[in-house]
Amino acid sequence: MAGAPRGTAAASSSASSATLRYRRILLKLSGEALLGRQEFGIDTGVLGDIAAEVEEVHDLGAEVAIVIGGGNIFRGVAGTSRGMDRATADYMGMLATIFNALALQDALERRSVQTRVMSAIEMQQVAEPYIRRRATRHLEKGRVVIFAGGTGNPFFTTDTAASLRAAEIGAEVMMKATNVDGIYDADPRTHANATKFAELTYLECLSKELKVMDATAISLCKESALPIIVFDLSTRGNIKRAVSGEPVGTIVRHRS
């Protein structure tokens, strides 16, 4: 690890903690977010920008867990569409998330942020096996925890893995970083008249088939009463704004 480790969340100043709307968060990143302008792999500049934003909310005293996809390297769905066995393709996709998790860990530790990678697929030379109590203990000690390997099972998306991990660790919110500034009734990149939603319920997401997350993931969040904030990752400072309770993107929750 480069540099001296930062202090624990418990050591954060009360002034900083007072600015937080959400104390423990689960940040869901797509593998595609790491592409930048590349067609494949990891853009180190983008990786550094994401690490800087995570560091910023970590320094406020937030307990940060991250689930990252692997679509910049391999997508299980894409493999299946080309004739691969679904389970094999999904396992390959889960292994791709390990690459991204290790890269993000390196970027964070270069900024002296203590980080742990926990994998649902055991490979103890590079990552800790996922154990819920150990994960929450890492968070309590102020370490950023990156969950890799999906759920460890084929046929489940990383969105479902994010919802599951968020519920297990008692996260107060799931923040899904995307390349659009919220949830729309149609793709705003191809439909000029698409309407953005400021707030939705879980049932509205499911009934309108808005595709922001798969039905299993949304249902898990509904059962846990876990709010979902969908926002644009490319706008600098959006993670901090969301954690601080500022209106960013679209929020999905039970109707208040």
Q: Can you tell me the CATH topology?
A: Carbamate kinase
Q: Please name the CATH architecture.
A: 3-Layer(aba) Sandwich
What is the topology, as strand order, of the major beta sheet? 4-3-5-2-1-6-10-11-9
Strand fraction? 15-25%
Fourth-level CATH superfamily: Acetylglutamate kinase-like
Backbone shape: globular
Order of helices and strands: HEHEHHEEHEHEEEEHHEHE
Give the biggest beta sheet: 9 strands, mixed
Distance between the termini: 44 Å
The tally of beta strands, per DSSP, is 11
Average the pLDDT over all residues and give the rounded result: 91
Number of domains as seen in the coordinates = 1
Give the helix level as a range of percent.
25-40%
**CATH class category:** Alpha Beta
How are the elements arranged and paired?
Layout: H1 14-17, E1 24-29, H2 44-59, E2 63-68, H3 76-81, H4 86-109, E3 115-119, E4 128-129, H5 132-140, E5 144-148, H6 158-169, E6 173-178, E7 183-184, E8 196-197, E9 199-200, H7 202-207, H8 215-223, E10 228-232, H9 238-243, E11 250-252
Parallel strand pairs: 1-2, 1-6, 2-5, 3-4, 3-5, 6-10, 9-11
Antiparallel strand pairs: 7-8, 10-11
Helix pairs in contact: 2-4, 6-8
